[in-house]
Design brief:
Elements lengths: L1 H5 L6 H24 L8 H11 L1 H24 L7 H5 L4 H11 L4 H8 L3 H15 L4 H16 L1
Helix pairs in contact: 2-4, 6-8
């Protein structure tokens, strides 16, 4: 969804490609029909009606997909206006209980091996929890995590 938020036209890429191909085939078919068959064609109301019935759905389909694109883009623009949490205490509220336990042990400067033995989890599970914590807090290392935790102390004390 993140890529759609930045480029909503990606969502409609297939539909626009399909409409383009349809337009080329429709235009080619009508031109072949008018050039080749026109020599022996009697222009009757039924022939004109046939050509109109064949050519009208393309602009209607194009207009419908364009309106859907605009509606989708408006929704995505509305989503992008949602405020991003910048307060460190708000970021900590995003963590699950297990992630909070892991974070508290990281705060105590325990090693990964010690955390695994205390929480009775595998090393790979711990790494997953740590990666989720880093993603939710918007950090890339334990050092940055300590910085966030220190800033929450100052927010809590003021």
């Amino acid at each position: 969804m993140r890529s759609l938020a930045f480029h909503p036209q990606n969502y409609f890429r297939f539909q626009t490609l399909l409409l383009t191909v349809l337009g080329v085939f429709l235009t080619g078919g009508i031109s072949i029909f008018l050039i080749e068959v026109n020599k022996s064609l009697q222009w009757t109301p039924s022939t004109i009606c046939f050509i109109c019935l064949v050519s009208i759905p393309y602009p209607i389909s194009f207009a419908w997909i364009w309106l859907e694109y605009l509606r989708f883009k408006r929704r995505v623009d509305g989503l992008s206006q949602v405020p991003i949490r910048t307060n460190p205490t708000d970021k900590l509220q995003l963590l699950s209980t297990k992630e909070m336990k892991v974070l508290s042990l990281i705060k105590e400067k325990r090693s990964n091996k010690e955390i695994c033995s205390e929480l009775f989890i595998e090393h790979s599970t711990l790494k997953s929890h740590i990666n989720h914590i880093y993603k939710k807090l918007g950090v890339k290392s334990r050092k940055e995590t300590f910085h966030i935790l220190d800033s929450t102390k100052t927010v809590a004390t003021t």
